[in-house]
Amino acid sequence: MTTRAIEEYLSAMPSWLAVLVMLAAAVLAGLLMQRLLFALATRISRRTPMALDDLLVRHAARPTRLLLPLVFVSAVWGSAPIAPSVALFGRLALSIAFIAAGAWLLAALLAAMVVWSEMHFRVDVGDNLHARRIQTQVGVLRRTANVLIFVVAGALMLLKIPGVENVGASLLASAGLAGIIVGMAARPAVSNLLAGLQLALTQPIRLDDVVIVEGEWGRIEEIGTTFVVVRIWDLRRLVVPLSYFIEKPFQNWTRVTADLLGTVFVYVDYTTPVEDVRRELHHILETSGMWDGKVWNLQVSDSNDRTLELRALMSAPDASTAWDLRCHVRERLIAYLQGQHPQALPHRRTQVEAVLERRGITKPEKTPT
To answer: In this predicted structure, what is the pLDDT of residue 273?
Structure first.
């Protein structure tokens, strides 16, 4: 069937039916084109060694199912036999739909970049400091970019509607009491958004960092647009505003490296052979499987009228291992003292000779063995 024959066939139909047929044909043509293009793109991306092109094709598939039909519909809309008012309304709707589809496509491509960074920089490995830094930056910047994309897209949609741009200009010009109230109400959200950008750039915290916040020990589980979720050691979740990590002090145990020094304090009697305990500590660390082999020591760190304070120092590759290693060393040292040097355990001494002499009681002599 020739083009002239198609035009004659459409002209013989009612106008509304002809418009529906044209739009349906344009939508089907757009979907068919999208299917063909993405089948070709998928085949090409599978032949390349990079994973990024596969992710881009996969994430862009759904937005383009809306974008390409819109292109075909826009191409045939100008020749549709419709009233001028309907044509104007259709062009407005197409413009708004184009903006929405473009924003959706940009957000999908950003999501593909995030997935690629998670595949390329994995945090489920031993030395994951660089990976956590990259993922934190990518995640925060993606959320910020999504907010900017949809805000700009919404503003462009409103500018397409006649009369709305005048309302926006009048609202910007009248910075009165309503503007002050809105600004004060939006201050926490804006401050948290700016804090998120600052966190992404300076990175006082990263994903999976070990932190102490409000006296709670936990790991950074999620960095959102306005808040941070800290997973506490007992699986509770502490939700903290982003601005907290900019304005208040907190402890970050994995800021530079993940390895930590752990300490164990043991209180013993003055008769304890410290050198033997030191050798036993080294043996416990070597056989534990949790010591990284970098730092260890045992020192008499304090003393009082009853006991000596022994401080065992050891290093571990991360905070969780350091905790387990400290508990293991404490248990093994106590078991060693109980089995090999029971006299080294703390006990009280009482001087009774003077009391016995005052009462005329003779101190019994020791029976020779």
So the answer is: 93
